[in-house]
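Possible regression after last week's pipeline update?

I re-ran a chain I had predicted before the update to compare outputs. Posting the input and the new output here so someone can diff against the archived version. Not blocking, just want to make sure nothing changed silently.
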Amino acid sequence: MALFNRCRKNFQCYISNLTDPWTNLAVEEWLFRHTDPSIVLLYLWRNAGCVVIGRNQNPWKECNVRLLRNDSIPIIRRKSGGGTVFHDLGNTNYTVITPRQNFTRKHSADLVARAIRKRFEIPAYVNERHDIEIEDLKVSGSAFKIISARAYHHGVESVSSPVTRLRNYSSTVNHESFCDAVLQEFSINYCGNISNPIIVDEELLLKIPKTLDYRDELKSWDWTFGQTPEFSIEFQKTFSWGHVVSLIIYCIILKGLVFMPKL
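New output (post-update):
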């Protein structure tokens, strides 16, 4: 019992039973900002189908916004940087939150890769960009966020790079077995014992209402599109009639709104 208590003081794991992407990202933000900054947290989760863009990315340049809307696939801007990824129930996401003074970009990915090697006998390794690869193909990308007292690293398969799947190398890999393998590796690393996870479900959300505020922010147009950095776009059309042979319209888009069109 003493060892379990020591483990809970040094390390905790949360596993989400929810698949709503806004809720899972809201829980991630709550864990990052409102839990004990001295504890290492592992958060394991997966989402229903959606496209997740980095904090500073342009959704109109990263995605076919109209096509995604027609297919009822939401675009969600996360709080961390990094590239655009597609989430569905075939992806398992992991977030590792650590005290800032203990944070390194490679350590968490190393533990995940080690868990994959031990449990599934798959030759996973971490490359120089801190992504997890197998035979030069990516299975997990990385994104990071750092504030005054804490930092986090989270990973999920990237859609913009040559990729592969863990299931291509072992039929025993699924969401549950992956979560169990990673939880065991992190528990042993941080406290020498297997830690019991805290389950994120609707009952737990009732105890942390702040997640609803984060969820509302993530769902808002102002955050998803209005947070887009300023960019410009040029439209050109050529005509065969009259004296006008071409028309060029140059627009500046600021906070998702069109300003200063020029002919």
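Follow-up from reviewer: compared with the archived run. Residues 37 and 213 are 21 Å apart (CA to CA). Marking as no regression found.
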